[in-house]
Fold:
Amino acid sequence: MIAILDFGSQYTQLLARRVRELKCYCEIFPYSAPLDQIRKKSPSGIIFSGGPDSVAAEVNGKEMPLPHPGIFMLGVPILGICYGHQVLAKVLGGKVRRAGAREFGLSKLSLIRSAGLFDGIKPRLDVWMSHGDEVAALPFGFVALGSSENAPFAAIANPAKKLYGLQFHPEVTHTESGSMILKNFVFDVCGITADWHMKDWIGVACKEIQKEVGPYRVLVALSGGVDSAVVARLIHKAIGKQVLAVFVDTGLLKRGETERIRRLFGKLFEDSLMVIDAKGRFFTALKGIADPEEKRRVIGFLFARIFEEISASQKGLLFLAQGTLYPDVIESGKSVSGKAHIIKTHHNVGGLPKDLKMRLLEPVRNLFKDEVRELGLDLGFGDEVLRRHPFPGPGFAVRLIGEVTPDRVDVLRRADVVIEEEIRRAGFYDRIWQIFPVLLGIQTVGVMGDMRSYKEVLALRAVESLDGMTADWSKIPHELLATISRRIVNEVPEVSRVVYDITSKPPATIEWE
Ligand code: XMP
Structure:
């Protein structure tokens, strides 16, 4: 396995994912992890991540984050990236200073030698930089492998000791041959064989779940979506009868959701599947609220209260499990470094009250959506679950601008049925990440059967994406858009105009709220 020491980079999980893509198992440790904890795992290689700190300047007497010095005595190959590169240089006796010119974005790297790391890679390549410090003098035994315009030691190595440092980020797709560089490190330098699969992760995750949960019971909140379904099966695999699956009908869901949940999970959970009708409570709590973040907060709080009530009524039901994914974590401002901005309070991460009386269990919080789908396949789910379009925890509440009322949600639900029917009929469902309606809360003039109409505008949002972090609006055929528009205006009498959203993410997000 590869051990990644996290120094607080925005890209640490991406780095882990890149290593997993190579079919190599890896784990992330805080940079300050005790040596024994790492030694016990017998890593074949260690990667130091980037981070926001500086080894060149001691800021306000604050100590800079450094790994346990014994890490260098393990005799294991090490690859330092960005801040990790500077740590390597500094700790081993080199010099790091504030760079004369900072480099953010693409730079050209000119290779000097390969030392195994750059085998098969062309001599000049675009690399992604994000640094204000630079290595100014190499530690003993090190040579330069490559330089950029502003960083003479942009890639360095002590080949005899198998220590490598890169000022740039190979884990970011903008870096040309980045995956190849990581591949060379993992396979050629560390001597790892590509034999790890997502299903191997299941065993590790099950052990961790058993250890964390102990004799207690876990409430698994099913949402109807892929993530919570996969988490439910994973936890059931780990602790079987200690699970109570709960599905809350918020009234903000797609049509037929309760029946679907019973059909999909009734057999697995038998009498430990609880379906709760909380429509009334959600609509009451959302009365008069139009602000998107407030809606998300209210919904998150109400979910939490309901789960706490169930927990209080059952013996030993201490844990609450959710299908939180990595993009939810980072966009809710809950990254390891704690420095990421809050984009949205995803209800299953940031929307929960601080005083939640249950312990959170989030076994897939470090995975990306496509990895969860792969995991689901290994757990025996079919396309109906795995290929389902994501649906946000707060449901239709964040797909209508303004106040959430049962009537308005019903308009969306009916339009949603039409959209899904047509998109499936055209064979487009599996080709896009998501398609859904948004009710804009504004009315426009129309003419229907010689009469003036003055009704709501409905926006259609369809996007293509790999992991929900970035997305492009989908170029679905105009004829299909026309069919959807015609059917909605005919079959949903509250709507008289349909518009198509042609914004990518960024700058827009996928959901409108
Ligand atoms: P945004 O709107 O943030 O959406 O670009 C990215 C992806 O996440 C889904 N999403 C959510 N999923 N709880 C969830 O489980 C939420 O609160 C939530 N908000 C957005 C969204 O549908 C898209 O696929």
Confidence is low (pLDDT under 50) at residues 336-340.
